[in-house]
Amino acid sequence: MKSRKYGLYIHVPFCKSKCYYCDFYSVSDNFQNLIDDYLVSLSEEIFHFLKNNNFQHPQIITLYIGGGTPSILNEKQFINLFSLVKKNFNIEDIKEITVEMNPESINENNLKVLKDIFYMSFNNFRISLGVQSFNEKVLKFLGRVHGVKQIYNAVELFNKLNIKNYNFDLIFGCPEQKIEDVEYDLNNSIKLNPVHISYYALSIEENTVFYKKKYNVDSDLQADMYNLIVKVLEEKKYVQYEISNFAKKGFECLHNINYWLYKEYFGFGPSAVSFFDNKRIKNISNIEEYIRDKFLYNTEKIDKETAIKEKIMLALRTKFGLSLENELVKRYSRIIEKFLKEEKLILENNCLKISDRYKFLSNHIILEFM
Ligand code: SF4
Fold first, then answer.
1. Which of 10, 12, 14, 18 to mutate to test the pocket of ligand 1 (most atoms within 8 A of CB)?
2. Residue 149 backbone dihedrals phi, psi, to 5 degrees
3. For the CA of 100, the nearest atom of ligand 1
4. What domain range includes position 325?
């Protein structure tokens, strides 16, 4: 029996329609009649997975229900999902619960249910809202199904129900987007006072509409936008605790911090990933097969070398940085010295961090360690 604490991620793989830039696994056609079957499979998957890996009610410190679009679930389905969690895991010590929601599928009823089942029992219940932009043209360009008005409606409901811990997911650097547009999104976001903002640069991923259309991004312009975002959010007292994540003090996302600190976690649902005992287990990315065959996993053993590289990669993305006391740093002393000299890395409290000026280029720096 294992007595460690884990993050728990549940993937809800349904979306009203597929956004043109998105490469997360989700289905958007005729899925309504699949949701109940998905929940049955999820229940079976969790039960067998824990049993086969010798876990008995493992302790969970964070729960993240992501997607896809979890807010597509109706009240009864949400209650079912949470019962599954309670039945299979020890949640006595849970520190945070996050549910991803999209503006078009938020209504007073589903928020009230979430409030009843999560908010009333746990101090730290978060909603992560897929905002992306406050510009109708950008939303259309991205293939989002909601408009700006629905973002405001969602926040109005949060206020009405006294839900204060919400994140905005935003995107920048779309073709045609100007720096003034980012400024506009920033100003509108700040006015609504989210306690957390995740701000991602658009990247063109394979298997997306944007990739097929051969869209490109202007990385110089993206760098300027990024610098503006960091500056404005810092002025407004958001702490940048990861390359793309900003939070008011005390509202950092513990679930994601758990990933970045290379801690162990479970992931259930199609395409979800678990990581424990030096292995990474990925679930099949196909809802029909998930429902029919269940337990189709791809298991990757993480050897020591890979683990070191992954730890460096994750630690350097965060404000905590990479501890120099760590023996793993010794073997990279040459690269580290070079980057310190070039001021791409800085040393703070014996931890290596990417200097502010190079944060947007962090991927290039991190790649040199790989
Ligand atoms: S709603 Fe989110 S998960 Fe669904 S397609 Fe759009 S970006 Fe992807």
1. 18
2. -60, -35
3. 2
4. 304-370
